[in-house]
Write a structure and sequence with these properties.
Blueprint: H1 7-17, H2 26-34, H3 40-58, H4 65-72, H5 76-82, H6 86-110, H7 115-132, H8 135-144, H9 151-176, H10 189-207, H11 213-229
């Protein structure tokens, strides 16, 4: 059975080390920010955190620069002193997601020895990241549901493509080590991996309970491995 007790600690440690604001502590940061002057980098991180918090509460379509300003206790004009336009805010949000999730996964994978254990660590780290930042999948799905090209959409597509490449490498390593079948399609395996996470996201959104995602992930991962291994010879 998978061991996921380490995952929340990894998430918390990484976020604290990088001084990244999440939706869980943004309420406190708003009051602190109103009493002190923040550096440009700190204010930008706060704006990104506010966007993700608002995405969870009301959906990306309803996020305006005024709503962001109200959330962190500044004027709308102050938002544009840190970002030239709204598109730049979205670019910063997805850059934060790419960097944060990428570093978190690298940290989780580095703590495991076997290739399959690394895949397990990546799965639980991904789920824990989403449970900690439930606004992330909402802004991702929102951006991808509209046709056409834009710098923001290109950023999201590049992020997803890079993530799939990392997963493909892990599945290839596990196949080479004999932990997964030689016939496994390592290009399709990440699709099932990501789809499983998305299923947990949808389920938690419907239930309004992101905290249950980790427990459900524990139940799901053995099913994933069973699917990857395919029918067993009698």
């Amino acid at each position: 059975m998978p061991n996921v007790h380490y995952t929340p600690k990894i998430v918390t440690t990484y976020l604290q080390k990088c001084k990244l604001t999440t939706i869980m502590d943004i309420q406190g940061s708003v009051h602190k920010a109103s009493r002190q002057r923040l550096s440009s980098d700190e204010r930008q991180r706060e704006i990104v955190a506010a966007v993700l918090a608002l995405a969870r509460e009301r959906g990306p379509d309803a996020i305006t620069t005024q709503a962001i300003a109200d959330r962190i206790g500044v004027t709308q004009g102050a938002i544009f002193r840190h970002f030239p336009h709204k598109e730049a805010i979205w670019m910063a949000v997805f850059a934060w997601v790419r960097e944060s999730l990428g570093t978190l996964l690298a940290t989780a994978v580095a703590q495991r020895q076997s290739p399959l254990a690394k895949i397990e660590a990546a799965f639980f780290a991904h789920v824990a990241f989403i449970a900690t930042n439930p606004g992330v999948p909402r802004v991702l799905f929102h951006e991808l549901q509209y046709p056409g090209d834009s710098p923001v959409r290109a950023e999201v597509q590049a992020m997803i493509a890079g993530y799939r490449e990392r997963l493909t490498a892990l599945f290839t390593e596990a196949r080479t080590a004999g932990e997964l079948p030689a016939a496994l399609d390592t290009a399709l395996a990440p699709v099932l991996f990501i789809g499983a996470v998305q299923g947990l996201v949808i389920e938690s959104a419907l239930a309004g309970n992101e905290e249950a995602m980790m427990a459900r992930a524990q139940q799901m991962f053995p099913l994933l491995v069973h699917g990857y291994r395919g029918p067993q010879e009698a």
